[in-house]
Amino acid sequence: MEQISVIIDCDTGIDDMVSFAVTLSSKKLNILGITTVAGNQKIDITTYNTLNGLALMGREDIPLARGEEKPLYRPLRDAGYIHGNGGLGEYYFKNPTSKQPDKLDAVHFIYETLMKSEEKVVILALAPLTNIAKLLMQYPEVKERIEKIIFMGGSIRSGNPTPVSTFNVLVDPEAARLVMKSGISFHMCPMDTTKDAYLTDEDIEHIGKINNPVAQMNYQLCKFYNDTVNKNNNAHNRFKGLCIHDLCTAVYLTNPELFTTVKYYGDVETKGELTTGFTMLDYEDILRKSDEEKNVTYINSVNRDGILKIYFETLKSFE
Ligand code: BDR
Ligand code: CA
Q: Which of 71, 200, 231, 273 could join 241 via S-S bond, C-beta 3.0 to 4.6 A?
């Protein structure tokens, strides 16, 4: 099978960790590296969590590079109120790995990896786009080597944590704008769609019955996430269950047949009084942009049953 070469950029983070269950064990992917960024938590924490996730899932062979500690031009606003002080709720690694990040930082690691790769590489971005924006600012020539960027974030309707902005855009809107308008094929897995890839309370209990350390970690993560999202986000009004945004986005890479897409012209509000971080998507074609100008492949539907089947089967495979 021809594998997809990919670099994963993340801010681990509960749903980032949940998504690793699928990506790290997928035979369809050739993961060239994982890079971390500040987002859900500070960079030390997202890096520690990712290194230990790789160890727990038996993938310490994948290089990890530590990325930017704050957004391009703003202070970091983290999501500790959702993901906890350690970024993984009340889950703590019993025997932390001694492995350290690569000697290169994320920007230089991605640059070197792209330049060395014989195939074009997909970037799966599950976090604020700071690393990727810095990469493109410093090394614009890498655009040719990127097959596409698949990004979790943005929306037409569903904001979180503000009514109109999603976390991964709101944290670093200037970075999101730069990447979205870079000319690289940009696939957006928006909250409008990830909210349809949800776990019910029964689904979470089902995970709890799978008896291996990875599934048990996923169970604890999802339980905590469900509680904090319900407490903080008024989620019972808006969501049908626990939305596992990053997992949904990762499955778009491994199983695109479970999704549909449409092309829009898009941009990001960076200076709004009320709307900073809003992703403006011209879904009614008001601006009459040509097909070439439509820069966003917007993922507009997901097969929830398909995602859950893959997720549960993968968790069982760690037994
Ligand atoms: C996104 O923001 C982060 O909190 C999650 O990890 C996910 O990537 C959801 O808005
Ligand atoms: Ca994330």
A: 200
